[in-house]
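During the second year of the project, the team shifted from modelling isolated chains to modelling whole assemblies. The rationale, set out in the original proposal, was that interfaces cannot be judged from single-chain predictions alone. As a representative example for this report, we include one of the complexes processed in the last quarter. Its constituent sequences, exactly as entered into the pipeline, are reproduced here:
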Amino acid sequence: MHSEFTKMFELIIAASLINNFVFTKFLGLCIFFGVSKKMETAVGMSITFTAVMMLGAAANWLVFNKIMVPLDITFLKIIVFIGVIAGLVQASDTIMRKIAPALYYKLGIYLALISTNCIILAVPLENAAEHFSFVESLAFGLGSGIGFGLALVIMASIREKLELADVPAPFRGLPMAFIVTGLIALAFTGFSGLITI
Amino acid sequence: MAQATDITLWEAIKNGVIKDNTIFKLALSLCPSIAVTNSLKNGVYMGAAVLFVQTMVNITISAMRKVIHPKVRLPIFMLVISGWVTVVNMVMAAMAPDVYKEVGLYIQLIVAFASILARAEMFASKNNIRPSMYDGIGMGLGFLFALTVISFFRELVGKGALWGHPLINAKPLLILVLPAGGFLSVGILMALFNWLDARYSTGKTAGH
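Output from the structure prediction step:
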């Protein structure tokens, strides 16, 4: 028997491990390669990302299902979602600076990077395409955030070691990062089939 | 107003394809370079969509550059970009439904391409319409070129086929069309470009 809770749990596992955004859908790669050089930035980025992703999923679900569907303007979803996310990021930037300056000092720089990131936009687009309910959308956002954080932390820990390795000259830098990501992705293929929804 | 650059179409193409190639040199907009390149057809369609959006965005921004207030320019750029992406999205869904089924999500995500916003900000908002159009065509062709090379390699080695037609009668390296193979092939191709670059010129290497 599938209760609401089991379904949510499955959704979180599916979004974070089986359909990991980075390794199976290749989203957010620019940020993934950009901030995975140091562990500290990777952790900060993952926390900010998960929070914004859930907020974005919730806000866009409300806008999509309560405003756009009744008005029959769902074809405008790309424009509207981008607008909602940009506004949301701007708002949380301002609120965080007032309420929690210490936290803002640590995580603020990541917020600015987020607004035009493809994962943040992909979550509400997927939610809309899959007709998820409000709670399911939230679970999907949380799972995607955890998955992205996991990918970042794994990658950062490997890249810190890679600094000491002797990599052939043409492979130095990004090409090697790509190869490493390919190998991790190969490992993540092992999760496919863990849960079937 | 910054100085207006006047470039020819040929110079713009050379710049976009070789010197500032979005994927191999600038390492921007990497998501689609892996996501849609498991077959040549998907890669070419995606590249064509980006070429169109980049050119139209450059033309629009350039035409509007005198009336956009500098303080609100980024939101306006985003609006223009998402407008053109919506156009491409709807055209693709209507004209090529089989391709759209696979690359649809990534077409919509062209909105979040750093490279398109960067060209609008760095070039189109400072230049006349004609050079901006050339710049858009050049950068778009560079992207199309990169996607074509990657997807050509992946479909040929991974499936032994091109554009859906089987060519090689041997057991293909299946891993290259799987997600993991995408990362591997882009890494290998990037290293190859670096190697060629270091061998034939003293240019900069990707990622640095």
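The radius of gyration of chain B is 18 Å. Chain B is about 70% helix and 0% strand.
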